[in-house]
């Protein structure tokens, strides 16, 4: 049987591995950490650093196709791997979404709305950006940010100095603050022959910068639902994308604003495990393996809740009889760490 390679060994890699196993594939992860969520379920684990050319070469040779569970993979490592084995989604999609500035440039180029934005490297850039965009605003590092890390909010021009300090010299982008009514996301998959299947948009609530719940159905009109799915398809096509992607959207009176895109399966798509016959992980594996996509239509209403830090200690009490529990096998329930999630089915889809 064919072997699917996954760069990264976190919970997304673990759930991709499980989906791939169910489809009869062997899985092989590349991850520097020894004890990681995906290492408990993958068939093979290349435990090495991304600078280890020899290990990367062996890993690539062991795999028939390679994917990733996080977007911050060093470019040099990808060059080595790609010379041996195909990577999906493609390098251009990865490069675009690794950097918030190029991501917003791309979205603007294909006609989508983003928050007003400007690149910032120096205090002077920031002054200019504030003049242009106004306050309130958010300064974000261009690269590597997740779960609200690497961000600084500017409520007044006086916050500029602190915001520059928070960036610690990293290139950043200033974004105008969007007064959205709700946040939603669309998880979409594009197959190798260009077919697209998008899951129903989910409504997201964050706590302390970390996703707390995703609820389906989202409070959207029929027209908004269609819009959200079509713009996601536009993004997938424009990037000639193969695999599953998460698109985060702000709902505003003037339409959707794209917050960010993630070139991978997405936390806000975990509800699909309980809400659809084919979930986001299986869709991704099907896409990168060159299979036809499955039916991603939603049969149930679901609330997905992340178990962060010691939330996990409240199990099984917080799980109702209609709650599916997913734990990632992480040993220590550190503050802010995603330990698992629960999917509660709240009814049949209307
Ligand atoms: P993730 O874990 O989703 O990758 P991240 O660290 O990349 O998060 P963002 O998604 O950019 O961070 O921002 C986190 C949250 O902060 C958003 O979901 C939204 O609630 C809020 N936020 C971000 N940018 C803006 C903005 N321009 N206007 C208003 N709220 C924003
Ligand atoms: Mg992000
Ligand atoms: Mg986000």
TL;DR?
By secondary structure, the chain is α+β, with helices and mostly antiparallel strands.
Helices and strands in order:
Elements: E1 3-7, H1 11-22, E2 26-30, E3 44-46, H2 53-62, E4 65-68, H3 75-82, H4 91-98, H5 100-109, E5 117-120, H6 123-133, E6 137-141, E7 151-154, H7 160-167, E8 172-176, E9 182-190, E10 196-198, E11 202-207, E12 210-216, H8 222-238, E13 243-252, E14 255-262, H9 272-275, H10 280-288, E15 300-308, E16 323-327, E17 338-348
Helix pairs in contact: 1-10, 2-3, 4-5
Subunit structure: Homodimer.
Catalytic activity: 5-amino-1-(5-phospho-beta-D-ribosyl)imidazole + hydrogencarbonate + ATP = 5-carboxyamino-1-(5-phospho-D-ribosyl)imidazole + ADP + phosphate + 2 H(+)
GO molecular function: 5-(carboxyamino)imidazole ribonucleotide synthase activity; ATP binding; metal ion binding; phosphoribosylaminoimidazole carboxylase activity
Describe the protein in words.
The protein has helices at residues 11-22, 53-62, 75-82, 91-98, 100-109, 123-133, 160-167, 222-238, 272-275, 280-288; strands at 3-7, 26-30, 44-46, 65-68, 117-120, 137-141, 151-154, 172-176, 182-190, 196-198, 202-207, 210-216, 243-252, 255-262, 300-308, 323-327, 338-348. With 350 residues, it is of the alpha+beta class. The chain folds into 3 domains: 3-87, Rossmann fold; 116-176, Dna Ligase, domain 1 (2-Layer Sandwich); 182-348, 2-Layer Sandwich (D-amino Acid Aminotransferase, Chain A, domain 1), CATH 3.30.470.20. The strands form 3 sheets. Strands 9, 10, 11, 12, 13, 14, 15, 16 and 17 form a 9-stranded antiparallel β-sheet that branches. A 4-stranded parallel β-sheet has the order 3-2-1-4, sandwiched between helices. A 4-stranded antiparallel β-sheet has the order 5-8-6-7, with helices on both faces. The radius of gyration is 20 Å and the shape is globular. Residues 146, 260 line the site of one magnesium ion. The site of one magnesium ion (MG) has 3 residues, from β14. Pathway: Purine metabolism; IMP biosynthesis via de novo pathway; 5-amino-1-(5-phospho-D-ribosyl)imidazole-4-carboxylate from 5-amino-1-(5-phospho-D-ribosyl)imidazole (N5-CAIR route): step 1/2. InterPro entries: ATP-grasp (IPR011761), ATP-grasp_carboxylate-amine (IPR003135), ATP_grasp_subdomain_1 (IPR013815), PreATP-grasp_dom_sf (IPR016185), PurK (IPR005875), PurK_C (IPR040686), PurT/PurK_preATP-grasp (IPR054350), Rudment_hybrid_motif (IPR011054). Keywords: ATP-binding, Ligase, Lyase, Nucleotide-binding, Purine biosynthesis. Catalyzes the ATP-dependent conversion of 5-aminoimidazole ribonucleotide (AIR) and HCO(3)(-) to N5-carboxyaminoimidazole ribonucleotide (N5-CAIR).
